[in-house]
Amino acid sequence: FQGGPVGLDGALGLVTIPEGGGLHAGVSRLAGPFGVVDLYSDPTDGPLGVTGIRIFAGHSGWSAGQLEGEIAGGDWYVLDADPADALTPQPELLWRRVLRRQGGALAIVSTFPDDPSLN
Fold this sequence. Notes:
- This protein has a four-stranded antiparallel β-sheet, with no helix packed on it.
- It is of the alpha+beta class.
- The protein has helices at residues 66-72, 94-100, 104-109; strands at residues 6-16, 27-31, 34-37, 52-59.
- It is globular and about 55 Å long.
């Protein structure tokens, strides 16, 4: 998967770890069921204990205060996360599914075409 337009020569491995699951030396827990995996670690060094993995090439980045300004300007939808979203088996449907479950105006936005100017 492409994680963003910055640093496409690097990769990040996002994993899900069951509660109380054993961690491989190359896995660091982030929050809840999520962790990152050191992609240079040897997978045979111990029990990996992950239930899912997704590899992202690149990342997104903002200068100091830029993201906060964009959020304040209404450029982003800031919504509660559902842990199942991160490793959904249907990533191409994720954006629409997340908006639809919000209800109201955001549910309507979920029905917009990819390029609204073509509507």
